[in-house]
Batch of 2 targets.
Target 1
Amino acid sequence: MRPLIAVENVQKAFHGEPALRGVSFEVAPSQLTVIIGPSGCGKSTLLRCMNGLELFDAGRVRIGEVSIERHGGVRPRDWRVALRLLREEVGMVFQSFNLFPHLTVLENAIKAPMVVLKQSRAEAEAKARALLAKVGLEDRIGYYPSQLSGGQQQRAAIARALAMSPKVMLYDEPTSALDPSLVQEVLQIMRQLDEEGMTQVVVTHEMRFAREAADTILMLHAGELVETGPPATLFGSPRDPRTREFLRSVM
């Protein structure tokens, strides 16, 4: 089966300091892939390169039939078009929710489908209501973000991302801003999407979730992909000493 996601030799530096050192991996359709590693190792930068929020210096990212690539720092002429097409394939969920504070939960969920996909309000609203019910917010559609708990805000953000019918969902530390009591309600939505066949890539420090839910674990250290494998292998018998050291520090 052809991978749905292919990341090839992606490199990124900030002010001359390498953040990603030639990262390459693939994700098959319907897989849940978890990226782990110490703070500052490049996990969030990698996600941002995958959906075009960061302009990487070299390499290639393909999601579905859309790819963006750079060689020797050269930006292709059709880069902006490719970025737009890529972002239509990807839903992104951030640690800080990023909901529009002046819009209700329902309005947050219908805005992008109406503006980007040119859906009618009726069409966008019907889908948004179904998605908000899926994440347990059918009784909160008229609330503003400030009236919701952190877990509810993150579930609203997931529904908003799903409203664009993405092929892939990317999550950047989706539970790090939540109280411990609210973490599981967000992780449960991700487990449910996995059961439904959604392809997901998750940056997280939730090791129990990674161990129980992931199909594949990617271990980053100092911008380098040092180890990859199924949870049983990576948690049970990691090969790389940097992986072993990291797991000892967090488990």
Target 2
Amino acid sequence: MTTTTRNLDFQEARRAKKDEFYTSLRDIELELRHYSTHFEGKVVYCNCDDPRASNFFRYFSTNFEQLGLKKLITTCYRSQDASQFGEGDSDQAVFLEYLGDKSGNRVPDAREIGIQPLAGDGDFRSAESIELLQQADIVVTNPPFSLFREYVGQLVDYDKQFLIIGNMNALTYKEIFPLFQNNKMWYGPSIRSGDREFRVPDDYPITAAGSRVDADGNKFVRVKGVRWFTNLDYSGRHADLDLNMRYRPDDYPKYVNFDAIDVSKTMNIPFDYADPMGVPITFLDKYNPGQFEILGSSKTLGQPMSGLAKKGTYQQGGPRFYLPNGDGTYRRMYDRVVIRNKML
């Protein structure tokens, strides 16, 4: 291994440490209740979770029999806070294969969870972790946000079902948006505001607004723009969006650099317009694939303004849609999803 490669590995390890957010049990319960029928006879893999600290492990082990799971596997980059089961911290990466409760109390104890050391570092990209991934039917976890593209790419490559947490703006990544467009990924239903609190490691710096330390010394931070991402279906995805606005040209300006109208709010989508429309990315909370077709986004469809307007009349930046201000200048819009009503 070269020095440069080692340095990159160390940098990724530091990034992973900064991404070490422990999801609350309540947030897990609120989301998982929408998918209970998906888990019968399945192997669940949580590949970013120390079983001694993870609420994902706590949820699936406690509900193992109720969900009808076949097996629960967890791995972590390295073990973190093992205090839940009364064991000391360690830098050793660990894994677990849990086959259900044997004590009769439905709450696994330290003897039942059978934690074992991994030979490597437990990175989700390692050969050991991939071998475990290949056994799994559904992956459920909170992966490192900084590695989200690569993490999702691996799930797609191995054709896995998944339910994971990420930043909602990951939708706009060139690797992620096609999955939404082709109905291979969508937002989960339980988090809409995107503002969530996570417990973080003891050595995590508490500097941001909204951070706190509880009476037991546990540290928490609030993170904005958080969403569940999944390819597990749920009934709410197939409810039609009620459309109450009639199309009037004066109310829906057209973009300068793409042939579509701008709809500033999801609630303003006209019921009688059959051509392409640009809508905010928050539309995807209401997206029914039976009602609408996703044609692309402002990043994929917007034409360069350099060929359409004089320099200085528009704000420069990456691909976006622009609307005329009426005075020879143009305003750059927030990211838009381009849709078409399939019912017209």
